[in-house]
Design brief:
The chain is mainly alpha-helical. About 75% of the residues lie in helices and about 0% in strands. The chain has one domain. It is built from 11 helices and no strands. The relative contact order is 0.13.
Length: about 260
């Protein structure tokens, strides 16, 4: 409850700040609409020349696009700016002001800066996802619904864990923004199913940078393409990656010397 209260405070603070610049907020929301609309238009144009892409129908592809913007929007709302500010704190030696607070430091550096305009991307992702689910039709049952919810949470945790690991590298390296730029590039690859890519890229998107499975697996679940083995592998992989990210964060934190060292 304490951390939920902190999240409410962070959200209220960022909302007050965003409302100070209403034109900028409105422009950000319009930008999200344009981005999602153009991506959807590109998919529609692609499927005007084919009925399926490596077994993915148009309805299933729309579901995947909805999942992509849902995951992308959620990480942008909660984590993206927070990790960027965290790396700046490490570089400037001002992380001390966060570490002395009577709250878990990982929670603080992960969620302190919530981006209100990106909520529009989450809402649009839900709209696109709902549209795709309607087109998929009656093939969605209880198993598909539960597995979708579980794999979506796992996908968000995988993205968060990867961001945490990359950001933790700032304890040893001066600048790691280039690594985050690579991460954003791989995240863009999640707009399409991981199984349409060449072997080496498919392996990369499923293991080293698990963006592909973080988006493709939930889309497969709600589209009726996911089997029990895939669901179990997703759960186990999320636990392993989450544990490693937490361990790596604690290891990096012990290497931080602070501004007064």
């Amino acid at each position: 409850m304490r951390y939920l209260s902190l999240l409410r405070i962070f959200t209220r603070t960022e909302l007050q700040f965003a409302l100070e610049y209403r034109a900028n907020l409105a422009l950000g929301l319009v930008e999200e609409v344009v981005i999602v609309a153009t991506s959807l238009a590109a998919v529609l144009i692609l499927y005007s020349h084919t009925s399926a892409l490596n077994g993915w129908t148009l309805a299933q592809m729309i579901v995947l696009l909805g999942v992509y913007y849902l995951v992308q929007g959620a990480q942008a709302v909660m984590f993206e700016t927070s990790f960027e500010r965290f790396m700046e704190h490490v570089r400037m030696g001002t992380l001390d002001f966060i570490l002395i607070k009577p709250v878990d430091s990982q929670f603080m550096i992960s969620t302190r800066h919530i981006q209100i305009p990106q909520i529009g991307q989450v809402i649009l992702g839900l709209v696109v996802l709902g549209t795709g689910i309607v087109q998929v039709g009656e093939g969605i049952g209880p198993f598909e619904g539960v597995s979708f919810a579980v794999t979506l949470v796992c996908g968000l945790l995988l993205v968060y864990s990867l961001l945490l690991v990359l950001s933790t590298l700032s304890f040893w390296f001066v600048r790691v923004e280039n690594l985050l730029a690579v991460f954003w590039s791989f995240l863009d690859a999640g707009r399409f199913p991981v199984d349409i890519y060449p072997g080496w890229l498919r392996i990369t998107l499923s293991t080293v940078v698990p963006i592909g499975i973080a988006i493709t697996i939930p889309a497969e679940a709600v589209s009726g393409r996911l089997e029990w083995f895939g669901l179990g592998a997703m759960l186990i992989g999320t636990v392993v990656v989450g544990w490693f990210a937490g361990w790596f964060w604690r290891r990096g934190l012990r290497s931080y010397t602070g501004a007064s060292a």
